[in-house]
C-alpha cells in the first residue's frame, strides 16, 4: 500500500531477531520503521517507530498514510 501511494518502502523478512532488524534499520537511517507482527496483521495496522528509537504506537494503515501525507505537506 505504501508503494501504491508513491512512498519508498523495503521489507526485511530475514531470520534475524526483531531487535536486530530494528537496530540495523535505525543505523540505515530509515525515517520510519514499521513493525508488523501477528496482532498487527489481524488488525490491519502497523507499529510505528522512528530512527531515533521513538515508538509512536500502533495505527491503522490509512491513519499512517494520512500522517505521512501531513508530514510531507509540512516539509514542502
Describe this structure in words.
The protein is α+β, with helices and mostly antiparallel strands and 76 residues long. Helix content is 41%, strand content 21%. A three-stranded antiparallel sheet has the order 1-2-3. The longest helix has 15 residues, at 61-75. The protein is globular, with a radius of gyration of 12 Å.
Number of strands: 3
Major sheet: arrangement of strands: 1-2-3
H and E order: HEHEEH
Which fold name corresponds to the CATH topology? Rossmann fold
- CATH homology-level superfamily: Anticodon-binding domain
Strand coverage percent: 15-25%
Largest sheet: 3 strands, antiparallel
For this entry, give a set of tags.
single chain, about 80 residues, alpha+beta, Rossmann fold, three-stranded antiparallel sheet, 3 helices, globular
List the helices and strands and how they pair.
Layout: H1 18-27, E1 32-35, H2 38-43, E2 45-50, E3 55-60, H3 61-75
Antiparallel strand pairs: 1-2, 2-3
Quick synopsis:
The chain has three helices and three strands. The protein has 76 residues and is an alpha+beta fold.
Amino acid at each position: 500500500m505504501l508503494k501504491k501511494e508513491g512512498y519508498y518502502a523495503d521489507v526485511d523478512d530475514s531470520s534475524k531477531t526483531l531487535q536486530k532488524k530494528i537496530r540495523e534499520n535505525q543505523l540505515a537511517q530509515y525515517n520510519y520503521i514499521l513493525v508488523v507482527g501477528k496482532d498487527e496483521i489481524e488488525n490491519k495496522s502497523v507499529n510505528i517507530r522512528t530512527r531515533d528509537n521513538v515508538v509512536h504506537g500502533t495505527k491503522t494503515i490509512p491513519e499512517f498514510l494520512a500522517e505521512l501525507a501531513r508530514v510531507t505537506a509540512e516539509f514542502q
